Amino acid sequence: MSHFCNKFSNLNIKVKAGKLFLRSFSLEELAEKFGTPLYVVDAERIEERYIEVYKALSKYFAEFNVAYSYKANHSLSVVKLLTNLGAGATIVSSLGLELALVSGVSPSKIVFDGPSKSSEELTQAINTGVGIINAESFEELLLINSIAQNLNCVANVGVRVNLNIRANTHKKISTGLLSHKFGVSSNDLIRFLPKIKKLKNVSLIGLHSHIGSQILSLEPFAEQAKILAKLYSRVIKEFKVPLSTVDLGGGLGISYKVGDSNISYEDYASVVFSEIKSIVSKEGVNFPKIIVEPGRYIVADSSILLTKINYVKKLGNKKWLLVDAGMNDFIRVALYDAYHEILPTRKLNRKFLEKYNVGGPICESSDVFALNRKLPVMKSGELLAILDVGAYGLSMASNYNVRPIPRVIMVWKDKVKIVREKESLDDIIKKEKVPD
Fold first, then answer.
1. Burial letters for 404-431: b for 16+ Cβ neighbours within 10 Å, e otherwise?
2. Would you please indicate which residues are annotated as catalytic (active-site) residues?
């Protein structure tokens, strides 16, 4: 590649006179004004992606809930924006539930997932009246029943079924095999059903499945929908359980490499609808309400991490760009060997002839954002943009090496606002106490 081609998945990222822009904003100027490392969030892009998901589902399904997955990005500004657009929430913790309520999500649109929910978390969820709690074991169902009995109510639950589907994604974000910790097998679901029917304070309303994350093929989703629809029909007909809901989870990926193709939500919705309709029509059961739990698909390409080059050095036969962002700010590369485009904020009209490794300030050999990446000749003080960091970026940031979680700004049309301040030492230690 002699120079860079402007083919971003987020079409609001543009190159003008060799400089990188997000909509009308020069990324260089944003970095100069707000400092680095800096997360830049494109609010309009999040809105565009949510509307894409909503329209795709509404074309095929009469009743559905887009329950945005908070684990992807739980920033208050992001979840509040999505709530205002009509999104529900998928949460996996007590504080996640509180955040959804603070953001204005109706309890009926909240989905509570997770393989190891505590009794305190379940009590809170049942008290709140969340739309559905997806249980992952018979023991969890017994606990939910006991808590609901003590609260003199009936809890709406689903059962997460492990369908043993290989999703062809990174092993650390694959969740649909029987070797993983998630859900119950199809055989165990059938075996448990007579006992579940006897639980007086549990109403089994749905079946749930989630097979993994960053999936770029429709085949696993088609298989998932087909098997889940067959189970849904069997439970209704054979066991006389009046199920009403199928939760397909999330997992649809994005293209992290510029120019790569990916799957649209329209394609996804069409495929899963076709599989579900074929089965339920044949079996003569009611068409289910659909829950989807997109996270990455909605927020990933909305955000950019800006970082300054502190040093350029040669070590052995490798050239290093040592930047001021670290794995504490953005851990996906260190954790998953993930690929993210890294571009200079200027010089995009020059030839990309140099190969650099890009590393951060953390005292870990894993604190590396890229190896052998082609860039123009770079100098200390210049800026790099790490693209598509909106999912599992800020939500996984930490204070490792006693570093602050960075400032976050959000752009909307011609406006820019700070939505999270850079942390101070007081922020980091304010919950600590030193004994006498």
1. bbbbbbbbeeeebeebbeeeeeeeeeee
2. 363
Instruction: Note the pLDDT tens digit of each residue in 175-215.
Output: 545 556 678 999 999 999 999 999 999 999 999 999 988 88
* The dihedral sign for the CA sequence 263, 264, 269, 275: negative
Residues 355 and 225 in one domain: no
Q: Are residues 284 and 168 in the same domain?
A: yes
CATH number for position 226: 3.20.20.10
64: in domain: no
Could you tell me if 117 and 194 lie in one domain?
A: yes
Same domain, 117 and 261: yes
48-53 long-range contacts (CB < 8 A, ≥24 apart) are 49/297, 49/298, 49/299, 49/301, 49/302, 50/82, 50/85, 50/87, 50/298, 51/85, 52/264, 52/265, 52/266, 53/265, 53/292, 53/294, 53/297, 53/298
Domain presence at residue 334: yes
Residue showing tokens 């289910």: 288
pLDDT digits (tens, 9 = 90+) for 205-253: 999 999 988 889 999 999 999 999 999 999 999 999 999 999 999 999 9
Whole-prediction pTM: 0.94
Instruction: For residue 339, give the CATH number of its domain.
Output: 2.40.37.10
